Structures
1.
Amino acid sequence: MYLNKVSASTGALWFRRGITLFFKSPLVFLALNLAYLLITMATALIPVVHVFASFLILPFFSVLFMTASRAACSGQPVSLHLLGAIFQSNGRRAPLYPLAMLGLCNFAVNVLVLITSALLDGGKLMQIALLGQSPEMALSDGALSARVSAALLFVMASYMPLTILFWFAPALSIWHRTPAPKALFFSWMAFWRNWSAFIVLLILWTGTTALILLTLTVASGHGTAHPALLGRVVLYFLISGSDVLVFAVYELCGEF
């Protein structure tokens, strides 16, 4: 398994490639994202199980996005048959337990982050996230709200390295039969060897997001748009687009 070492400017190439792939089949990517949201919403009424299910199915949907992106890249139509044959490698049915293992690892690591954040707010954020408790009480108390905010900042800061750790792992597990620990290792090493390109990609994506949100804010200020509705629509597009960026990086980062 070989990882290319690319220059910082490759981050801009990843960005352009991801945008191009997204607009080749936008409805497919939006539909996949909607399916994931509907499944997670279906379990939202069950505390803890909701969070567990979200992390467990995430690797499976990650591979779905990667497969749809690969089809769009080669000019193939993305069909249900194509997505149904996703969990196959070299004509054989690929075992699903590596993806399930990645989902369990993702859940465990995120719970560990929440437990660590309890040192800052006494576990209030963890109760809100895992048990579905209302955040209104925590936010109404000024001192408690400050501690919860500090815990939330810690969780958000931890999210980026966790995202990097699990970014390529699902595709490596299902397409190349790579064990979960090894897939996590190579996912991290892909970033480590090309961190400057990833920083450029992050700056471009963050800047684009900020520009779009600023435009929406100005438009809503002039009464030409409904800010809440447009904000949700744009956020939905941005999330779907970010999923396609994963394949753009995977495609150009190395010969996995």
2.
Amino acid sequence: MFCYVRCNSSNISKSWSTTSILRIATIKKSYLTSSQIYQSLKDKLTATIVNNEPLTPHIKKDFQKYWKLLPQQFSKQNNHDNETILNQIDMTTFMNFINKSKGISSTARGIYRREIIYLIKQNLTLVFQLIGLLSRQDESQATYLESSPSLSSPTDILHWCLNDSVRTADVVMAADLYLLFYKIYPHEKIYPTYQSRLINALSFDNPLYDHIHLIKYLELHKLWADKHLQYTPTPLQTSILSNKAISLRNSPSLSKTTLELLLDTHFLPNDQLRDDQIVIAYQLIDENYKLNNASGVFSNWLKIKDHYISITKHDPRIIYKIIKISTQNIIYRTICKEILWQLSPQYYCNNPLLLPAIIDYATEVNSLSLTKEIMNNINLHTKPENYQVVWFTKRCLSSLLKMHLKFNDSDGVDRVLRQINEKFGKHSQENYQAIISHLLQSQDIQNFAKAMNLVNKFPPETALLSYGTIINRLINWETKSNGNIDTNNSNANILNPMASINELLLKAHKYDPKHLNSLWNIIAALYFKRLLKLTFSVENQSKENDAINTTSLDIAKYIYVNCTQNSYPWSEIDSNPFSNPYPHKVKLKITNSNKFVILRNIAMTAIEQVRQDIFLWCCAELYKNGMSVKELKIHWNIMLKHSLRKIEFKDKKHVTDQLKSKEVKFIKHLLK
């Protein structure tokens, strides 16, 4: 899919040779620099201990830097005797420094614990001496030492350090010491008791440290997974860890990775999920729904859909969200088809949440036969006591209105409009939007004029969504005609589409000057759509034999970054970005609700224009905002491989197997 430059082999060899020499020189220089920094820090910190200087914030930072460099230096030397501070000074001096601060400073406690870890296999005598001195000074440490059979093995000493850390509430340090130990002594045995003890420690409620606790949980899981070990969290641990993940607001990727890990853990031999995992799956589906991440909703639903004997045992709010987002995303509509087949008419016809969503699905797929079947089921299976709470809700009447409009049923439209007036006295934004959308199905000047006249009569508070619908249609027509609308054509969509857009946005801005309405999120997405599609179409047409100018992609990336990194009140965004002649100055309303739509649009254009760099940037942004690599693979493969869209996937394994055999090559190469 992406093109590569063909180079002369001799040039490659020559270039590689020169580059390799430079790289080796750079690595050597970097190594020496790293060693020099390490030695300088070590000498400075040794002097701090010898002189019994106070642990100032600056000194604490130096210890952090030293600990970061030490594992690397430790692994480079065959002789480790001189690689720790304690080998350089006498025990009395060391203990004087530690005792002065260990009661109030986790850094002081970290110093002696890390020294012990590094000395385990180099100087056991020194380790035992240090532990003995520490234990004699602390009653709880002495009790643990006396109750232990012996401290004869490296893991015994590790466990002493872990217990000592948990005793002083240094939970993150306990995890770090554990990870450090198995990094420098990878062949030592792992004991399940201490797996559980560490996860227990990380599972305590502590909002200030939830973020780092989850990072450590993931690091521990990776360590065990690399060693082909698995730890099964208890229901209580699962609940607390999932609550920690859910509470994170500024780390969507960390939150999602944690929740998916907890969801994917197998607890029983038959691989059945626990009820607490179902709650996690529901939370993931809900979060992905809010982000408009259909791939995330799809993949998590596949994990749990068969958990219950009947689909009706699932939370209907979750089923509703799955149906709605799948209806809106054409490549995932097979999910709706399967759910509808599994739901009994007696169930969905009496559910005020699901029935409108199912009607919307039938309308969107333009299936008259399915619509007739649903309407027959409604008449047959709706209980009399549910008529008012199911049929005559705003949501259901709105869905029925869209359905009758779609199939040109004028009698049905009149009947529903009359029912809405009788029941509610006025129309909702969705009702007005449905009428406008129906008028604009074709590019007809008379219908467009009707739509504009009608929308001008709507109350301002209910007209904004209709503005978005009109602007979307105008942009679609403009891009289809490559920006060259024939003003002499009777089917031209008003002489100047930009004038119509400007008229609507001026009215919208007048009513909503703070730009709080969701219309402005829609306008942001439409701005990118027009920028990418129109520019690409025009350039592609005008440069048939030349390389396509992909500058619009760079502009789109710049605008997105500028709008998401710079903080400004929504009142300052462009009320009409389409009229701004300076793209680099455009301000748009980009939020979690439209980020995924915008980024996927840019990424799709990057694929069309063979811009691998922009595509990967979009994927990185999607990942940062909560879309996992697995979900990215699922989305782009289903989007680009039409045969995958037709498959009714049974479970997550079925998806994995199908992707292996049908995966798009460049997606497989780029997303690993």
